[in-house]
Amino acid sequence: QVQFMESGGGLVQPGGSLRLSCAASGSIFNTHAMGWYRQAPGQQRTMVATITGGGTTNYVDSVKGRFTISRDNTRNTVYLQMNSLAPEDTAVYYCRDIYTNSWGQGTQVTVSS
């Protein structure tokens, strides 16, 4: 079974940027739609962005124009570039293989001054 490992989270000031990475342990995910999701304390996990195997992307309205999802199939990795971060972006961010419903362990993003 393919496993996923997120990295790149941390503490950043409002207006700052982070790039999250999700590395897959195998190449089967190259044809699968992948997604980034987030869960803030006391809230449900929600979709942030998705990308199909062919590269078509979709975003939740609150991150459009600020976040960019991409994938590098040669590295079995999907990315989330996050710019103009705001305190409301604070959450644990997870990557997900949508086809197999497999999740990574999550990485914490905290936006605070």
Can you describe this structure?
It is a single chain. With 113 residues, the protein is mainly β. 0% of the residues lie in helices and 49% in strands. The protein has no helices and eleven strands. The strands form two sheets. Strands 2, 4, 5, 6, 9, 10 and 11 form a seven-stranded mixed sheet that branches. A four-stranded antiparallel sheet has the order 1-3-8-7, with no helix packed on it. The protein is globular.
Topology:
Elements: E1 4-7, E2 10-12, E3 18-24, E4 34-39, E5 46-51, E6 57-59, E7 67-72, E8 77-82, E9 91-97, E10 102-103, E11 107-111
Parallel strand pairs: 2-11
Antiparallel strand pairs: 1-3, 3-8, 4-5, 4-9, 5-6, 7-8, 9-10, 9-11
Strand count: 11
What form results from the Cα inertia axes? globular
Query: What is the radius of gyration computed over CA atoms, rounded to a whole number of angstroms?
Result: 13 Å
Mean pLDDT: 94
| SSE class | mainly beta
Which regions contain 5 or more consecutive residues with pLDDT less than 50? Answer: none
Strand content range? over 45%
Estimated helix fraction? under 10%
Q: State the end-to-end distance.
A: 40 Å
Largest sheet: 7 strands, mixed
Can you tag this structure with a few keywords?
113 residues, mainly beta, seven-stranded mixed beta sheet, four-stranded antiparallel beta sheet, 11 strands, globular
Question: What's the short version?
Answer:
The chain has no helices and eleven strands. With 113 residues, it is an all-beta fold.
